[in-house]
Amino acid sequence: MKVNGKPTRTIWIHSECPEIVQIIDQRWLPHQYIVEDIGTVESMAIAIRDMHVRGAGLIGAAAGYGMYLAALEAKAATDFDSHLDSCYALLESTRPTAVNLAWALDRQLQAISKGREADEKIRIAMNTACAIADEDADFCRRIGQHGLSIIREISTAKNGDTVNILTHCNAGWLAFVDYGSATAPIYAAHDAGIMVHVYVDETRPRNQGAALTAWELGQHGVPHTLIVDNAGGHLMQHGMIDLVITGTDRTTVTGDVANKIGTYLKALAAKDNTIPFYVALPSSTFDWKMKNGLSEIPIEQRNPEEITHVEGLCDGKIKSVRISPTGSPAANYAFDVTPARLVTGLITERGICRADRESILQLFPEGRHK
Ligand code: MRU
User: Fold this and answer.
1) Which CATH number belongs to the domain containing residue 340 in this structure?
2) What is the 3-state secondary structure (H, E, C) of 36-47?
3) 159 and 104: one domain?
4) Ligand 1 center–CA 160 separation, angstroms
5) Hey, is 319 helix, strand or coil?
6) What separation in Å is there between the alpha carbon of 58 and the centre of ligand 1?
7) Between residues 270 and 4, which one has the greater pLDDT?
8) H helix or E strand, kind and range, residue 258
9) How many CB atoms lie within 10 A of CB 16?
10) Residues 156, 130 within the same domain
11) Pathway, per UniProt (predicted)?
12) Catalytic residue (choose from 136, 178, 249, 256)
């Protein structure tokens, strides 16, 4: 996508210094656009854990580049493979819910093991990291094309009137390498001249909707309105939402969807108001082994300070202020699980399917053997 008119991805290898990976440090958006140099596995792990980069696809891509940095470091270590293993463990421990993390680490480990000596392993690790990133971008672009058909159909049914879409959190290009999952159909529709308008949930506690999704949509010229997290149900009851599209951090082979906390409530409200609730994801976000999302998907709990405090721009500086009484405990569940029965369909790079095992495996037969 473009930032200030310039094509940009969320992560890439430094053009003059291939030992450095560069990322957009998303902690400062929308106030400042800062590119961070990452030169060690340790700093990549911090970048993932502390959410300089975030979103399932980007977490996977960052893990892929992290393993490339690990291979560079391993050349100087006494034992190449055991250094790689410890870097794998470090990166894997950063965030528990998005399955793309382990998926990318496993893909890297398998690929690197085919190299014979250190330089060949490093070359493979670099190529694999770039392949993971390119594939992520390409899959999201395809999700956009498939999802476009849903928006087009609604637009036609409304005789070309604006299609109002609700989204939660940020499943935009900032959550991936490019395009995004939930936003890709929206960008495709907007680019095709279909009138769309997006209601953006602010998404407490970290406000990825307010800070990131609103910024992205604004950069691309997509009309949007920011709403508080609890407004969606009210808008649905008053016929103001035609479609909900969210992303996901892990979707079971049976169609249960883990996504940012609050997604489940949006799905319930959508069901009650007969509004289609779609989830957009690349295949790297499927968990082929899990059958029951509610009991099996690990739900990240983050620092309660994200709830007791809010961050914002004050006198040109980003500041954090307390909003609750000192001493009141807070619990910060970062994700929830929406059962498959509440999901109208899954928009993937291969097409749209129902959120059930049979339909998912029909599109992705290789999932049976994972
Ligand atoms: O905690 P985050 O910001 O990493 O959460 C990720 C999200 O934004 C998700 O909820 C999103 O919808 C899926 S990630 C593509």
Assistant:
1) 3.40.50.10470
2) EEECCHHHHHHH
3) no
4) 31
5) strand
6) 10
7) 270
8) strand 257-260
9) 5
10) no
11) Amino-acid biosynthesis; L-methionine biosynthesis via salvage pathway; L-methionine from S-methyl-5-thio-alpha-D-ribose 1-phosphate: step 1/6
12) 249
Tokens of 33: 């656009």
Q: How many domains does the chain have?
A: 2
- Ligand 1 binding site (Cβ under 6 Å of any ligand atom): 54-57, 169-171, 175, 181, 208, 246-249, 259-260, 334
Q: For residue 262, is it left (φ>0), alpha (ψ between -120 and 50) or beta?
A: left
Q: Range of 95's domain?
A: 2-136
> What counts of helices (H) and strands (E) characterise the chain?
13, 18
| Beta-carbon count within 10 A of 191 CB | 13
> Is 259 assigned to a binding site?
yes
pLDDT digits (tens, 9 = 90+) for 125-158: 999 999 999 999 999 999 999 999 999 999 999 9
The minimum-distance atom of ligand 1 relative to the CA of 285 is: 15
What's the ipTM?
A: 0.97
**For residue range 303-360, what is the model confidence (pLDDT) as tens digits?**
999 999 999 998 889 999 999 999 999 999 999 999 999 999 999 999 999 999 999 9
Ligand 1: which residue has its CA nearest to atom 6?
55
Annotated binding-site residue? 32? no
Single residue among 136, 170, 195 that ends a domain in this structure: 136
Claim to verify: residue 76 and residue 175 sit in the same structural domain:
no
Question: Domain with 112 in it: what CATH number?
Answer: 1.20.120.420
Closest to 200 in 3D by CA, of 186, 191, 190, 210: 210
Q: Which two tokens stand for residue 163?
A: 């299609």
- 104 CA from centroid of ligand 1 (Å): 17
356 is catalytic: no
Closest CA to 68 of 125, 14, 108, 18: 125
Ligand 1 atom 2 nearest Cα = 55
Residue of 39, 36, 104, 103 lying closest to 70 (CA atoms): 39
Radius of gyration of the chain (CA): 20
Residue at which a domain ends, from 103, 136, 169: 136
Please state, in angstroms and rounded to a whole number, the distance separating the CA atoms of residues 5 and 348.
Answer: 28
* Tokens encoding 132: 């993971």
Ligand 1 centroid – CA 244 distance (Å): 16
Domain shared by 244 and 317, yes or no: yes
Q: Is 266 annotated as a binding residue?
A: no
